[in-house]
Amino acid sequence: MKIGITCYPTVGGSGVVATELGKLLAEKGHEVHFITSSLPFRLNKVHPNIYFHQVEVNQYSVFQYAPYDIALANKMAEVINREKLDLLHVHYAVPHAVCAFLAKEMASHPVKIVTTLHGTDITVLGYDPSLKEAIKFGIEKSDAVTAVSDALILQTEELISPRKTIQTVYNFIDDRVYYRRSVEELKKSYGIKEDEKVVIHVSNFRAVKRVKDVVDVFHRIQDEIPATLLLVGDGPEKSSICQQVRTLGIDKKVKFLGKQDNVEELYSMSDLKLLLSEKESFGLVALEAMACGVPCVGTNVGGIPEVIVDGETGYIRPLGNIEEITKASLSILTDDEKASIMSEASIQRVKEEFHALKIVGQYEDIYFELVNGE
Ligand code: GMT
């Protein structure tokens, strides 16, 4: 099949999922055309089935705002016609689903549209009256719509009420990349002692990720046991988090690692992952940790409980309940047998429910049904 993929190419879960999907589809023999504003950052591999089409935006001085959405739709239509695409799979409702519909109308070659909702395109932008109708329109005009969790479907129905069936297709993980490896030397080189437990948090440090709660929980953990906190990522809250860490006097125990490419190595030296967000449609970072055998404690928010199974692969606790989250975390960090059972259960759950081949197969079924009417 010839598949066009549009996503936000910069760092972010939706771009990661879209790019990894494209790479796997190419491996399975499909011809994949990325149509994006720049080269997707995870597109780090040359493959004869992968093509990249950059959207160029006209900066003519009359425009108060450069017309990116029109340029994207134009590029989509150009690629549909020239490459004879069977379908466009767009990730993130705005503007991508609307641009895809516009491109379909412009193109002379017939094409189907699949839209995947990732979260903030609904849970944040769906509240914005300047975008709400456009999001609904994009969803309703798509030939098939998927969401990354059941919780996101519910939220979409509550907020937007589109006249469209949406199906859950979970995010996935490539276990050739995400698996637990031996990283004793790396751990040593970070100055982490053998008896120290390592807690990890990975995010874009936006307010919704509640990194402050992560630090508060860790503050209590390190009062009880020797521990190090790895904070991976960067974003708007980082400066205030640095300040919080200094004020609490735990700066020697918290490592701000910034953005990192090979997080699987960092997960491999971790004993616990904290994902304490107030909005999270899925929580791809939890899945990455689980694939590397790291039990997770997460909040009872959005799709997180669909990923972390309470009491089996970690714990689900109420948003903002620092005491309960600390208790749950310590119960894993101080009980090696429990930690090992949860680590194994995490790896197993990823293999059974979120394996790349299983999920890519679900997307292919949707594609084939639309294109061949199967
Ligand atoms: O989490 C973010 O802030 C980035 C955001 C994005 O749009 O890339 O991630 C969303 O999509 C990911 C991939 O499907 C999900 O794993 C994240 O849970 C989701 N983020 C939120 O819902 C806040």
From TrEMBL:
Gene Ontology MF annotations: glycosyltransferase activity
SUPFAM superfamilies of this UniProt entry? Answer: UDP-Glycosyltransferase/glycogen phosphorylase
A Gene Ontology biological process noted in the UniProt record is:
bacillithiol biosynthetic process
Q: Which Pfam families match?
A: Glyco_transf_4, Glycos_transf_1
Task: List each copy of the Glycosyltransferase subfamily 4-like N-terminal domain by range.
Answer: 11-175
Q: Where is the signal peptide?
A: none
Note the superkingdom of the native organism.
Bacteria
| Glycosyl transferase family domain residues | 184-348
Name by which UniProt lists this protein: N-acetyl-alpha-D-glucosaminyl L-malate synthase BshA
Naturally occurring in which organism (per UniProt): Mangrovibacillus cuniculi
| Gene name for this UniProt entry | bshA
